[in-house]
Amino acid sequence: MMLSALRRRSFSSRAAASRPGLLHVGCNIRRDDPPSKQYVPNAVSVSLRSPIVQVFGSNTDVGKTIVSAGLCRAAVQSSATSSVGYIKPLQTGGDSMMDARFLHSHMDASRLTCETLFSWDTPVSPHLAAQLEQKSLTDDILVHRLSDAIHKLQPTASTLMVVETAGGVCSPSASGKFQCDVYRPLRPPAVLVGDGKLGGISATMSALDSLLLRGYDVPWIVLIEQDDLGNAAAIADRAAELNISVFALPKLPPQPTPLHDWYMAQDEIFRSLLSAISTYHQRRVDRLHAISSQAQDVRLILWWPFTQHKQNRGVLVIDSAYGDSFATFDAASTSLEPMVDACASWWTQGLGHGNPKAALAVATTAAR
Q1: What is the CATH number of the domain that holds 350?
Q2: One domain, residues 248 and 348
Q3: SS3 1
Q4: Which value, to the nearest 10 degrees, does the dihedral of the CA atoms of residues 224, 229, 233, 236 take?
Q5: pLDDT score of 20 more than 60
Q6: Of 231, 260, 286, which marks where a domain is finished?
Q7: Distance between CA atoms of 66 and 53, rounded to whole angstroms?
């Protein structure tokens, strides 16, 4: 698709020359346009001012909310954290604030803000609830709403943001599309909650592969053990090969026993997880800033195939790409900003970036 064709879409493009001295490969989404013109699927801004993680489950009922609460509890107790934000994008079962109330009941809630974005009454998967209640929700609305909620709840650099998904990694969103595909434009580092039950080793590793195949970073697996099966130990070697830390939690007390004592006994583990998240986030941001600061040396580092490239004094730092958009690093705001990939003549537009079907085909071919 040519750049002239891009201008006929429902969003406005900004000429690359607006940032002089940089090698541009696309056009930025204009922030001063009306919302209707900014509404571009798979193109959202992601602030990196403070740590943000997305909690995925290897299955339903593996303890995502319990792990999310433990992590938020550790952050609330930390003097280094000014506030904590918890977002549940999709909730079914009638009580839209059920998980939020669980979090509030297990910590000092004065520094905790919880928000549920979309909810349905029927206690089934979101795609079924949306059909039964005739309350549809498109993926681009969900992703943009989540991006807005993160920006709203992220007021300071020390804030921790926790986004908890619904069901398993490949559980459908309201549209029927897998959640791991829906949330991919944001690409926050993932905390994968493993399955401690019988058969949970396979479920956990399959969920991990599904996330890695889609380009997610998965630095941590948290697993609540069941019946002394030792699932965490069983996946430890493979996780270590992938540089993934595994955090094992003991079995929960039988319901309806309150979890206050259980949480107190596991506070140190959750503090370790919080520390790992903070360290990972800082290293990620430092690396992006370091690459960005190397602009003056870029002509010595990279090979420039065309004459006009020799005039460039720097490059855009691209953290990732998905669909038609790049996620470019803005050092001034410490954020990832969307930029439409307008390099159609470079044959990238047919499938888009990060296409899971293409990634699976390549992986299958490589495995043969």
Answers
A1: 3.90.1150.10
A2: no
A3: coil
A4: -70
A5: no
A6: 286
A7: 15
Within 10 angstroms of residue 319's Cβ, the number of other Cβ atoms is 17
Q: What is the pLDDT of residue 220?
A: 98
Strand order across the beta sheet in which 84-92 lies: 112-120, 84-92, 160-164, 52-57, 190-194, 220-224, 245-249
Number of H helices, E strands in the chain: 12, 15
Residue 311, CA atoms < 13 Å, CB-side half-sphere? 6
Residue at 19 is within a domain: no
- Please give the span between the terminal C-alpha atoms of the chain, in angstroms, as a whole number: 34
Buried b (16+ CB within 10 A) or exposed e, 179-209: bbbbbbbbbbbbbbbbbbbeebbebbbebbe
Question: 28 lies in a domain?
Answer: no
193 plus 258 within the same structural domain: yes
Peptide linkage before 256 cis (omega within 30 of 0):
yes
Report the C-alpha gap between 31 and 18 in whole angstroms: 13
What is the span of the domain harbouring residue 318? 291-367
Whether residue 316 is found in the same domain as residue 270:
no
Q: Among residues 208, 209, 241, 211, which one has the least CA distance to residue 223?
A: 208
Please, what is the angle between helix 200-213 and helix 231-241, to 10°? 30
* pLDDT value of residue 182: 95
> Each residue of 286-320: pLDDT tens digit?
999 988 887 657 666 777 787 777 676 667 889 99
pLDDT at 345: 54
| pLDDT at residue 42 greater than cutoff 70 | no
Query: Which of 286, 311, 344 is where one domain is finished?
Result: 286
Residues 217, 149 share a domain: yes
Q: Are 75 and 108 in contact (CB under 8 A)?
A: no
Measured CA to CA, the distance from residue 368 to residue 47 in angstroms comes to 40
Cα angle for residues 72, 255, 85 (degrees, 5° grid): 15
Residue 347, pLDDT above cutoff 70? no
Query: How many other C-beta atoms are found inside a 10 Å radius of the C-beta of residue 164?
Result: 27
Q: What is the CB neighbour count within 10 angstroms for residue 258?
A: 11
Instruction: State the DSSP string of 105-134.
Output: TTS-GGGEEEEEEEEESSSS-HHHHHHHHT
Give the residues across from 336 on adjacent strands: 46, 329
Instruction: List, in sequence order, the alpha helices (H) in the chain.
Output: 3-6, 35-38, 64-77, 98-104, 126-133, 139-152, 179-182, 200-213, 231-241, 260-293, 298-301, 356-367
